[in-house]
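Lab notebook, bench 4. The sequencing result for the construct came back, and we need a structural model before the next group meeting so we can plan mutations. Quick request posted to the team channel:

Model the 3D structure of this chain.
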Amino acid sequence: MKINDELLERLGTYFVYHAVYENYGITFENFVERWLRGILVI
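Done. Here's the predicted structure in token form:
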């Protein structure tokens, strides 16, 4: 599945700003996959 570069950039910014990996142990790839599936709502 192809994801828009702008959307990917925004998700990356959110991921880093909220320290998702440090707080929840979720990798960026897993974070994006969960967001695409609708499991995460930001």
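The mean pLDDT is 91.
Will bring this to the meeting.
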